[in-house]
Structures are given as C-alpha cells and as structure tokens.
Amino acid sequence: LPPHYFIQSNLRMSKKDDKQDFINRTELRGFWLTRIVFLRSLAFIYCIGFAVSLFQNKALIGSNGILPIPAYMEQLRNHFNLKAEEVTTRSFMAVPTLFWFVVEKHTDTALALISTSGLAVSVAVLLQGSANMVIMSVLWILYHSIVNVGQRWYSFGWESQLLETGFLAIWLVPVLSVQSLPFNTPTSRICIYGYRWLLFRIMIGAGLIKIRGDKCWRDLTCMNYHYETQPVPNPISWFMHHAPQEWHMFETMSNHVVELVMPWLLLLPWRSAVAMGGVVQILFQTVIIVSGNFSFLNWLTMLPAIFCFDDEHLSPLFSLKTLKCVPVAEKLADRNHHRPVRYQRAVLNCMIGMFLAFLSIPVVQNLLSPNQQMNTSFESFRLVNTYGAFGSITKDRTEVILEGTTDEQFTANTRWKEFEFKCKPGRVTRTPCLISPYHYRLDWLMWFAAFQHYQQNPWFINLVAKLLEGDEDVRNLIAHDPFQNSSTLPKYIRAQHYGYQYTVPGSEGSGAVWTRKYLKPYMPPVSLTQLKEATGLSRCRDDGITVPPSPDPREDMRHVSLLVSVWWCHVRDTLSRISEWVGGLELSDVRDFISRQPIVVCIRSLGEVVLYIVYLWLEKVL
After folding, report:
1. Residue 439's closest CA among 240, 121, 251, 162?
2. What is the pLDDT, as a whole number, of residue 208?
3. How far is CA 155 from the centre of its chain?
C-alpha cells in the first residue's frame, strides 16, 4: 500500500480520543519529535548568532572596524607567504572561512550578506521545524566563516560549542528532504549519543576546571563573589548576591554535584536515568540564565540535553494530529529497513561515530590532565572541543570608565564627560540590563580589559581612536556618546579605573545599584594625533584610520601540530602492524604527508581503523 494510505487511515481514528489517551495507548519511544524540537532550538541559537553579527560586526570587524577583516586577512597571507587575494589549500584548511575569497573593498557587503543569509535560513528552519543536510551545512559554513575572522570578539567557548553542535546536526537530518517526519531517515542513534557525549564533556570539563582552579570552589565561597563580579550582571544578580552565606555555600556544593556527578547519568543505558540527567542539566542552565547575561551559552548548552528525552517525554508539546503521524513514520521506516539507502546511512553513521571517537582522544586526555585547558580546539574546524568556565573567580569588581573632553588643553579643572555602554556597569544608578540570549561583544570584552593593561588589548586603543573620530558605527555599539549631538568631537579621551560594589539593602542611598570608588588612571589622556603617531600607522583614510589587528592571528596553528602529535602516538602501533602485513609502507612517508596536510589526519584515521579491522578478520579466518 502507498504511504499516504497509512497516514489517512491513522488520521481517521475516532475524534473522541484525546491526546493523553493516545499517548497512553501508543508506545512513543523513538526520537522523531525530539529531532523537531532540537532543530527549532538550534535554529533559534543560530538566529541570535547571526543577528549579533548583522547588527555589530560592521563596527567590530568591518573594513573600517575596530579590528578590520582586511588587515587580519593581510596578516594571514603574510603568515602563509601568499600574494594579495591568493588562497591555497593549506591556508584554507588552517583558517576555514569564505573571506579568503572576498575582495577587500567588498568586505562589508560580504559580511552583511553572510549574516543576513544565515539569519534568513535559520528563521526558516525555526518556523518549519525541519531541515536537510544542505541547509544545516550552509548554516555551519556561514557561521564558521564569521568565527574564523572574528578575532578577539569571537574567542570564547560558546562559538566553538555552537560550531560543534551545528556540525553534528548536519548528520541528524535527511540529505535533501525537508519533511518534519522524514520516513526514510529515522533520527540517527550516533547523533543522539554524540550529543549526550557533548553535554557530558561540557559539564565534566566545567566541573574539573573549577575543582582544579580557584581555591574558593573547594572551600565553597565562590558564590559569595560571583554575582557581583560576573562579566555582565542582570537585575536579578543584585538580589542573588545578597542571599545568606549558607545559601551561597549550598549553591557552590550544588554546582559541584550537577557538574561532576549528574553528567554520568547521561552515559547510562537506562531511559529514566538519562531523562533525569537531562532534567537536572536544563534546570541548572535555567538558573544560570536567570542569574546573569552569558550570551547564548546556557541556552546552547540546553540543546544536547534535548536528546535525553524521547517522543513520549516531549509529546505534550505537539498536537494530536502530529502525534498520530509518529507511529506511521515508524511503520514506514521499518518497511524501508532493507532499502540500499538505509544501508548507506548506516555506514555513514558508523563512520561519523568513529570520526567523533578519534577526535575525542585529545579531549579526554585534556580532561584527565592536571594542566587542563578550557575552551580549546585541537583542529581548525572545531569539530570536537574541550570546554569549561569560571576556573577562577575575581573577588573584586573593577571597571574601565571612558571619559572625553573638548578642551584643547586639559587641566585640573577640565570637565570630562563619561561614555555610557549598553550593559556594562557605569552610572551607579542605572539598573543592570537583561539581554540574554543576545550579546553585546564590546561590553563583554570591557570586563576583561578591567583586569588587564590597555597595552595588552590593541582593540581598546582602536576603540578610543574610533570614538575620537566620531565613527557612527562604533557609536552605535554604546548607549551614550556625550559628544554625539555636539558640533565638536572630543579632543582627548582618557580611561579611569574604578572599583564597583553592590549597594547594601536598606543602606543610605539604596536607590542606587552600585557604589564605586576611584582607584587609579587606566589610560592617560590621548588625542587622535597622538594615537596615530604612537601606533606608527602608515595608512590613513579620509573616513578613519586603519588600525593594526591583534598580534599572532593564528595562535590556533599550534593546535594543528598538537593534533598531529596526538594522532601519531595513538596510531603508530597500528600503522606498524599494517606495514608488516602489507609490506613496503614507509612510515616516514606517512609522517611527511600528514605534516603537509594536517586535516587528512582525521579522514585518514577512519580508513586505517577500517583497514585494521579487516586485517584482524582476515587473520582470524586464514
């Protein structure tokens, strides 16, 4: 019978059956509905990421931005000894981005096109609740292209986490079909376990980095400081900071339990245990979302937890009509079980599983190492990464406050006007913002700048230069420029260092959220002319200065050599045995080939594993 017969016959069931009765009578243990929920959730995160890029990246990394892409690409080409607009396989594999193929004068157009296209495609997936490999690959490639030229603005763990989550989603969906319930493509078990493994690594990594890091995590006092000193507090943070000491100790202990104990439930074979682990992790991320503005990090961390729940768990989210289609999809999937396309899909899933297992080797080694690194990628495509957060907690909050003046000569009586950022603490009477899952990248980096020297942050000097110029794109990144409506641009800008503390409830002046105390100068007053002379700028444009990008743009290149080293240690013995069997295989040739093509390490290893399995089978048979 044709497939539509089964659908129509099921939909003719008695209209008196309500949804709960149907759920009770039907075993919904698959992951058809889970995939729909996950794809909508992932599309939502992609929407946020591309929206942030669309509205902020022109000022941050545009052709005339704070850290411009053209200058960054020029430095990359110098690193690889390439000519202008030249790109090689080696350079692309080391820094995979579409901006290798973009002419400098079209940088802003390409940046807007990539962001707009990604936003449009992700909105379509969000509304449809389905996708195919082509669509998910497009989203992954577009966001990857932005991240790899984002420099300091995109150097945080959630960017790699989104890329890893998005990469695995490519293999979760059909090749071409965009049906919500694609009968020929049941949800891949490899992807389900892959996402549980991802969530396990995220939580265990975060827990271990805390135990091995700041002493306050071990004496249960870190939460005494966290809400006050976190990068971008929200309105709830003030109330949570003033909770009793005993409650903060309970929070810290609960954090250790959730991050170090509960993740093991995700690896158990029992359905109820896995579901409990998923519930705990989602509740934990929800509490963090309520307590502060951490971009889309915690929203993104919820996504792998969705695969802790099968269709029965998620059935309340769907209509009765949709639920009745699930058993039909199961029947059709069983009917097509012996079709060649199902065998091809099974082989693909096995290869993806081995691929993920291989790439997890250095990640596991990092987790077991006493010198654990957090938020690190071991290869340029960021397919399997290591994560962690807040290994150390700052005990005192300091802020950098930018001030400008129009005076030609500044004295002790000079009037300095303060620049106000959109979310970063500034005026003590301003209520903290609530923006998560959206993210202000400039505000986030200003938090890091406060406990570093300004000379360690070239972007900070470039920001000051843009404000001295009155750059409109950069002005849009802040809440208030005191000179925006003035006919005169600031002649000088300085940065002052202040210490911030929450006000005490019931104290005098409790209408303010913060109290602040002047500490010391952060950066002396500078003019635009002084900055040009000090930085040795050789190129100046009519519409602004071109500033040097941050040094060492390919710091991640060390990860390629690290990946080769790790791979060689684990596969050398296998290669030796294969060499003895095949004969004539020179290991030095393999080593030289890998050193020229690092990405082949990942692909070649799959073939070697398969070849070794065949060898063992032949050895047993013969």
Report:
1. 162
2. 96
3. 9
